[in-house]
Amino acid sequence: MDTERLTAIGWKPCFERQLPADVGDGLVVARVSAHYGSQVLLLGEAGDRRAPAQLAEAAGELAVGDWLIVTAADGRAVQRLERQTLLYRKAAGEQARPQLIAANIDTLFIVSSCNADFNLSRTERYLALAIEAGAEPVVVLTKADLCEDPANDPAHLRRQVERLRPGLIVETLDARDPEQANVLRTWCGPGQTVALLGSSGVGKSTLAMALGVGDLATAAIREDDAKGRHTTTARSLYLMPGGGVLVDNPGIRELQLPACVAGVESVFEDVVRIAEGCRFRNCRHEGDAGCAVIAAVESGELDQRRYANYLKLLAEQAHNARTLVERREQDRQRGRYIKSVLKDHRRRREET
């Protein structure tokens, strides 16, 4: 096994410990680099190769970033290695199902721009998702030159984001300048996997190019709303020149939190701490008697926007958690029904 080659694309000792003894005997290690519906692009010791999605998914549902043990002959997966992190959301729309975003991400660059896109509540949402997934979040503020309001200069915006969570790392840069993008290389290198997450037009593809992943399509900023057009259309894994890989995600128009209570409480640990002073343990923080959270909002200790977003995200993830559980139960019941129908069909054929 070419460990050096695999390390360049994010391989770690925790994955090597999962390898079966017969790797090398017609079996090879590969990483999911992209998923094109009917085909999956695999990156491994021998470089890129395409495999039919049906064969690659023989060991389970795949996300970009997954590590697989596949047959050297046709790319059939015989094992999906245990994921260290998994980034996913509730699927957009009314469908109650999880949508995988990326697996085995070490660092998540949450990208927002210093213009009309800047939104603290959205950043809190992304932070909760990253923490729940197990990835380290780093907020990257781009397009500092487009911040027209002197009261909201990049330094001020950075301080606002830093206050969202103790120890949160925030970097402000011009994504078009590779020299400025170098501040992010601390999280890049052999054995490391980073991903970009943010709305369309915030400069994710430009930032990816500044980190050296190659020429990605970008689009100009629209004058009417200061947003760029959607450019990246599929999640893809790119090699970085210094080692390690980067996952460039499409701009997310709707990001509904799945079961994410730990992530939400971690982002809002100040609210959780205040809530410990509520008179009743089951306080809903919506006007209940003796609510310490409401008292903190009224006194100015807790920001009204932050309080409202905490309640919103907590309720959203609780609702989606219930619907996802219900969907899984429906799928199990449907599976049992189909099996019973097939069993009855086989019995009738045998009787005739």
Task: Annotate the secondary structure layout.
Blueprint: H1 3-7, H2 13-16, E1 27-35, E2 39-44, E3 47-52, H3 53-56, E4 67-71, E5 77-80, E6 86-90, E7 98-103, E8 107-113, H4 120-133, E9 136-142, H5 154-162, E10 169-172, H6 178-181, E11 193-197, H7 204-210, E12 236-239, E13 245-248, H8 261-267, H9 269-275, H10 292-299, H11 304-351
Parallel strand pairs: 8-9, 8-11, 9-10, 11-13
Antiparallel strand pairs: 1-2, 1-4, 2-3, 4-5, 6-7, 12-13
Describe the structure.
- The chain is of the alpha/beta class.
- The protein has 3 domains: 78 residues, OB fold (Dihydrolipoamide Acetyltransferase, E2P) (Beta Barrel); 163 residues, Rossmann fold, CATH 3.40.50.300; 68 residues, Probable gtpase engc, domain 3 (Ribonucleotide Reductase Protein R1, domain 1).
- The protein has 11 helices and 13 strands.
- Its main location: cytoplasm.
- Pfam families: RsgA_GTPase.
- InterPro entries: G_CP_dom, P-loop_NTPase, Ribosome_biogen_GTPase_RsgA, RsgA_GTPase_dom.
Key attributes of the depicted protein:
Rossmann fold, globular, OB fold (Dihydrolipoamide Acetyltransferase, E2P), Small ribosomal subunit biogenesis GTPase RsgA, 352 residues, metal ion binding, five-stranded antiparallel β-sheet, hydrolase, rRNA-binding
Q: What is the CATH C-level name of the largest domain?
A: Alpha Beta
Radius of gyration: 23 Å
Helicity, as a percent range: 25-40%
What does the overall shape look like? globular
The fold-level CATH name of the largest domain is Rossmann fold
- The neighbouring-strand order within the major sheet is 10-9-8-11-13-12
Task: List the total number of helices.
Answer: 11
Q: Average pLDDT, to the nearest integer?
A: 82
CATH architecture of the largest domain: 3-Layer(aba) Sandwich
Number of domains: 3
Domain EngC GTPase: 103-253
GO molecular function: GTP binding; GTPase activity; metal ion binding; rRNA binding
Subunit structure: Monomer. Associates with 30S ribosomal subunit, binds 16S rRNA.
Cofactor: Zn(2+)
